[in-house]
Amino acid sequence: MKDEEVKVVVFDLNGTFYNKSSKDEFYKFICTKRPSRIRYMLEIGYYKLLKKLHQIKQTEFKENFFDYLNDLTPSQVEAYAKVFWQQEYPRQFNKELIQRFDALKKQGVVLFCATGGLELYVKPLFDLYTINAFAGTKVYYEGHTYVVDGLACKHEEKIRRLEEYLAGKPFRIIEAYSDSKEEILDHAEKAFLIDDGVLTPYK
């Protein structure tokens, strides 16, 4: 018997489900716990500029941006992230999307978050709001610093990670949500851009 097609909704995290940028807000949060990490501000600004000028690839940008996590073990980062998300959820999340996702869950639709954020600090969020799966940028801890494992979870990598999760099952992306024009929107039957919390049809 042919496998039934899986209905999937794919959504970005930052500026989409979460109203803000988690990489920026998590850095601010870490600085409240570890004030000495403020010294990384200039370095972060430098790498943001390189990215804006297209002088650095996404994967390299991620590795350098998160230098402020140096010397914090994965268990320490996860513990901080747990507190961070408890402070942010649900107040700083898109209420319209929460309602929509809750309805889709009841229909048995697969909810899949694909984000460029590090899985290391994103994971505790989905203990608070459960979905079927998420994919973020993977890292491993080596020599007191974090190294990106593979590619940053951006653009076509998001589709590849979804296919990996579904392990060969046929699927249809019935809806997709993002704050910027990206690959997942082009693959969806219905796609929405989100600007300052407002949903606008993409196509």
UniProtKB/TrEMBL annotation:
Domain of life: Bacteria
Pfam short name (any one): HAD
Gene3D superfamilies: HAD superfamily/HAD-like, SG protein - dephosphorylation function
Coiled-coil region list: none
Protein name per Swiss-Prot or TrEMBL: Haloacid dehalogenase-like hydrolase
Protein source organism: Pontibacter rugosus
